[in-house]
Write a structure and sequence with these properties.
Helix content: over 70%
Structural class: mainly alpha
Distance between the termini: 41 Å
Number of domains: 1
Low-confidence stretches: none
Mean pLDDT: 88
Shape: globular
């Protein structure tokens, strides 16, 4: 589980770094417009997570192949975690990671903010896997998660959007 978690964190960090570097391309757009766009998209994210707006998220809707795990215990777990941690080669069903990615891209904050966003994404994915493993009852854990996933997803997008509105208003 350790190498998998390291891979998740490294993948999230890699994606955040690419987004932060690409944020330089948005700098010609006035900062006020870029900053105002993020909470507005946040409202769209909340509406999407509530099921009010049927919006498909851009994602590579396929799973990481099992062949990755045949590369050996350490290398396979690290690579699988990395690919999952990037969020690029897997399912991402919630809007919040996209909102954070957009915020990193548009606001061009200090690199430390991008690092925290990337580690937060990878850490969130690691926490889910670790909680399932720690439950020692994977199928029951999956059932409980399925029953509570929608409120968790909606709460994530609401809290993130409110945070961006508060930052915009300060």
């Amino acid at each position: 589980m350790t190498w998998f978690t390291v891979g998740l964190l490294a993948g999230g960090l890699a994606t955040a770094t690419v987004l932060w570097l690409a944020s330089g391309l948005t700098q010609p757009v006035p900062a006020e417009w870029r900053y105002a766009f993020v909470p507005l998209i946040g409202v769209l994210a909340v509406l999407r997570d509530l099921g009010v707006v049927p919006l498909r998220l851009p994602q590579n809707a396929r799973q990481i192949p099992r062949d990755v795990l045949r590369e050996g215990l350490v290398r396979g777990a690290l690579r699988f975690g990395f690919e999952l941690g990037t969020g690029v080669r897997t399912y991402v069903s919630a809007s919040t990671p996209y909102l954070l990615a957009l915020a990193v891209l548009l606001t061009g904050q200090r690199w430390q903010a991008a690092v925290l966003a990337g580690l937060g994404f990878g850490g969130g994915r690691a926490a889910s896997a670790l909680a399932r493993y720690a439950s020692r009852a994977g199928e029951q854990w999956d059932a409980r998660l399925a029953a509570t996933l929608r409120p968790i997803v909606v709460a994530g997008s609401v809290v993130t959007t409110l945070a961006f509105w508060l930052l915009l208003l300060r």
